Amino acid sequence: MAIRPGGVQGASIEALVQRPKKSRAVTLVEVMVALTLMAGVMLGFIGTFIQSRRVTESSVLHAAATSMIYGVIEQIKQLDYTTLLPSYETDPFAPSDLDPPYFRVRLNQSKVVWLRVVHTKAGDTPAAPTTTPAATVAASDIDAIDNYTGSIPLSTVTGTASQQINMNIWVWIDEIPDGDASEVKKITLVYTYSYLDGRVERVIRDREVIIRTRFDQ
Known about the structure:
Helices cover about 30% and strands about 35% of the residues. The chain is of the alpha+beta class and about 220 residues long. A hairpin with a 2-residue loop joins strand 5 (about 160-180) and strand 6 (about 180-195).
């Protein structure tokens, strides 16, 4: 029996053979737009991470430098006013290329340094700066003595130094007349350290001033 188009048999065949639904594919333009948006989000995230790391590193180094200087100041407060602030006697443990006047301080558990000073006697013009010198000013520009502390590790991981700080310290001791006798000494410390911010070297400089009297021990 022949199957006629449009008949019952033809209708049954059309019902059995389902036509696939038309699907909409993702175009190349849509893919490029999505990738561009994703790249923008990722770049913003990476930029935020890098900036956060820079701020954190700067804060850590500043805290370490400040803590180190405050440690030096606390030791200065304990030095004998007459004989050690500064000392004009040659310390047998000091490096042979260092000449007094200087004083000895400990920077950490394993590092001791002798900081040479510019000592101004009472009646002479004080030599210490009254403001923090600019980061571009060299020690020779203001007749300071540059004390380089060397690379000092800040933290260790499994015994290996993970971060270091390099510091230069300038020290002045100016005797301030008190009537007819010199009973007050003004100690000025200018400290400088640097670190790499990406490929740019940042130089930080600050100043601390303390007053010592003969009777404050």
